[in-house]
Amino acid sequence: MKKFAVLGNPIAQSMSPFIHQLFAKQSNELLQYDALLIPKTSFSEYATNLFENEEFKGANVTVPFKQEAAKFASVLTEEARIAGSVNTLIKLDNRVVVGANTDGVGLVNDLVLNNVGLSGQRVLLIGAGGAARGVISPLIQAGVASIAIVNRTYDRAISLINHFKHKQLEALSLDQLNQDGHHFDLVINSTSASLYGELPGVANTVLAHAACCYDMAYASEPTIFVAQCEQLGVKQCIDGLGMLVGQAAESYFLWNGVRPDVKPVLAALRQRL
Ligand code: NDP
Questions:
Q1: Pocket flag, ligand 1, residue 58 (CB < 6 Å)
Q2: What pLDDT is recorded for position 89?
Q3: Range of 115's domain?
Q4: Within 13 Å and on the Cβ side, how many CA atoms surround 171?
Q5: Could you tell me the CATH number of the domain that includes residue 112?
């Protein structure tokens, strides 16, 4: 039987085993998918052992190992190389392990599924961590006009635009953003603030002008950021559950060559939260 796993620490909360079993059911594939708690200092050792198993075909990688996974992979896809971060490891027949990053595709596909147009749009990306890194190139490829990056720690926003060197990118401090009356079509919250019940510090006037606000975090109730944007009257307020299923679907495709139907899986997951 083909074996897969998600590797992280912590990992008990992971919904990836549930998602991948539903994908497998759709395509009548028999596979094993485990959630494995990896000691924080032993990623490479554990991954090496796993991939030596003949049946083990691939892994998802989550916090805090995405950067280590990029070092572990023998080859990187273009997205993973640019992002410096890997969330999917794929064993090729000759035992070469490819590192890919499907977070960006997951986000873009979820926006498309929600009929959020991207071509020519002005985007505000809040946050400059690993998740922000992974979505910048896919958003540019999807045709957005510009991405302004704002982050609690301004230096990290600067580092990010210096890393990418795309002309469509600019870094703003929270003060600049909140004082200068900037307007955006799409606001994406890629910070982990919602996980702590906190808001990322962007002024209501900025958020209220957006046609769509997207929070990469998700929960059984609307996240604090989604709730704030709804209250401000933003037309489309979306949480990150669809991105989670979207990135998983792309991993599944890379491993099995089959594109799962994300809609029923997203509905089942929403019920399970
Ligand atoms: P990182 O730890 O790499 O980055 C965290 C980011 O959040 C930094 O920009 C940090 O700012 C900012 N931040 C944290 N707390 C606050 C706060 N209280 N106020 C303002 N900014 C804050 O995490 P990731 O980038 O990997 O993940 C970010 C979020 O995206 C998480 O919620 C994660 O669950 C979600 N995610 C969702 C996915 C999905 O499929 N839906 C996929 C990947 C991630 P600073 O630099 O100042 O510390």
A1: no
A2: 98
A3: 104-239
A4: 19
A5: 3.40.50.720
